Amino acid sequence: MAREKYILVEQYCKHSNIEDTFINRLHEYGLIVFEEKQNDLFIDENDISEIERMFRLHNDLGINFEGLDVIRRMLNRMDKMEKEMDLLQKKLRLYE
Amino acid sequence: MEFIDYYKILGLTKSASEADIKKAYRKLARKHHPDLNPNDKSAEQKFKQINEANEVLSDPEKRKKYDQYGKDWQHADSYEKARQQQGSQGYSNQRTYTSGGQGFDESQFSDFFESMFGGGGFSGGGRRRTAQFKGQDLNATLRLNLTDILQDQKQTISVGDKKIRLTIPAGVEDGQTIKIRGYGGEGMNGGPKGDLYITFEIFNNTRFKRLESDIYATENISLYTALLGGEITIETLSGKVKLNVKPETQNDTKVKLTGKGLPKYKKDGQFGDLYITYKVELPKNLSAKEKELFTELSKLR
């Protein structure tokens, strides 16, 4: 089911409540990567969930772009640690 | 339908000022925001309540109505109580399938709220804006027995009214989540569909302990087999296997049966190993004759 799909930024902004300035700033801060084809900017469909999550955090909690980057890193770390903890717990169970 | 104490939800009293409400709301929203508490249903619930409380208390008109009406609430009626549509839906023996939306749909207010302030109609101001393009992601849990994951399994599951045919790869982990692209909610305005995330709960219905694709078991052997060696038969996931126990095998000796574990996830034809730990059983209720012979043996050492 691996199909790459790109969405025109302009199109995405028109249909969502997200403004292109927000998307541009995500790009500026390296939080997403644009795909450029013939002077048109596209976003990867796979990034949409992340974009929308960052949008909610920005909008609901007033988190700025530096903050979004920090949160993303922290959540990734947390996720990794949870997986590790899960594996360790399973290992521990062998000795019970 | 129950009365909801919005002040309590925000940790305030009725005398709270507008600034108090704003402050309390913001603080709690930061704490319980679902995007900061992934996989935490209670945070999601809490966040909804906080938003609802704020929706009412931050709006002077709503707050006034709530304050007046609140004390007479009991008379308002006994509405249809639990209108909970969510829940679990059995779909075949020992496999339960539950579905629910991920993220949050803030248009869903409590019955209490809707009966007092009506459904849809939102006063501007505090309305949260969400991006509505990609469809909502869905979460589901699929429970399987360990013996069900020895081979790839084709299954049809239903999410809402949709039937989804999927292949569950052999050797899937307990707690593992797989993403099925495009099987979530409908997108808005031509946006892509959301995704379906299925988390597996693997119930171990075998005597083996599992760590990834390796499995572990203990096997009792008699004192005599341990000392003199011999052949034993053990049960594995793929049937019975004969094992040669070496003479003078110590208690807790571990042997590895290569390839007798679980299939490795998404590695066709590869299997983990089975580890057997021998437990030497000492004879009990010795007869006089046995005692005599053991005494004799002990003198030889």
Strands of the widest sheet of chain A, in order across it, are 1-3-2
Uncertain stretches of 5 or more adjacent residues of chain B: 76-106, 121-129
CATH architecture descriptor name of the largest domain in chain B: Sandwich
The total of helices of chain A stands at: 4
CATH fold node name of chain A = Multidrug-efflux Transporter Regulator, Chain: A, Domain 2
What is the rounded Rg of chain A? Answer: 18 Å
Pfam families (chain A): MerR_2 (PF13591)
Organism (chain A): Aequorivita xiaoshiensis
Protein name (chain A): Chaperone modulator CbpM
Domain J (chain B): 5-70
Describe the structure.
The complex is a heterodimer of chains A (96) and B (301). Chain A has helices at residues 9-15, 20-28, 48-61, 65-93; strands at residues 6-8, 35-37, 40-44. Chain A is built from four helices and three strands. In chain A, strand 2 and strand 3 form a beta hairpin. Chain A is mainly alpha-helical and 96 residues long. In chain A, strands 1-3-2 form a three-stranded antiparallel sheet. The relative contact order of chain A is 0.12. With 301 residues, chain B is of the alpha+beta class. Chain B is built from seven helices and 13 strands. Chain B has helices spanning 6-9, 18-32, 41-57, 60-70, 111-117, 223-228, 288-300, and strands at 87-92, 95-101, 138-145, 153-159, 162-168, 177-180, 196-203, 209-211, 214-222, 230-236, 239-245, 254-257, 274-281. In chain B, the strands form four sheets. Chain B has a five-stranded mixed sheet with strand order 1-2-3-7-6, with no helix packed on it. A four-stranded mixed sheet of chain B has the order 8-9-13-12. Chain B has a two-stranded antiparallel sheet with strand order 4-5. The longest helix of chain B has 17 residues, at 41-57. The model of chain B is unreliable at 76-106 and 121-129 (pLDDT under 50).
